[in-house]
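Record Tc1-like transposase DDE domain-containing protein, 173 aa.
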Amino acid sequence: MVVLGCIDHETADMMNATLNRPNDPVGWISAVSPGVMLHVEERLNSGVYIRILENVMRPSVTRVYPNQNFIFQQDNCSVHTSHRVATWFQDQNINVLDWPSRNPDVNPIENMWGFLVRHLQKQRQIYRNRQELLTAITDAWHALPQDYIRNLCLSMPNRLRKVLDANGAVTKY
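=>
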């Protein structure tokens, strides 16, 4: 399972309004790798997202999963679900997990972003500019404990089971 996620509005607000872009940063995680996190310098649209998938996600995931033995999970952000992006995944023979439209809270990367934010808040650092904040986010990403990331990813079967049991309604995750 490879989980990709953009930082959400609430998390960006917790970090500081300095980011000024709800789609910055973007990252992927898996049970065997912390993946890659990058800062998107432009408004995220399907073209930009495909470029990220082609130039960052695909090569870095292929290093971890050379036989392409993974399922890709992303939320239902309109950029992620656009026809153009769906076609790209299909053309690349990448399996994408169907995702419930009203349940982004089961996405494990949201827990990871929250962990990252709490780590930054404990630093009690005041970031004087956007670059300082982005550097701190990158450093915090690299400091994430792999056991924590692995446990988040391995929780996916249980998370999905809870969604099914709740008939697609919100769960504790």
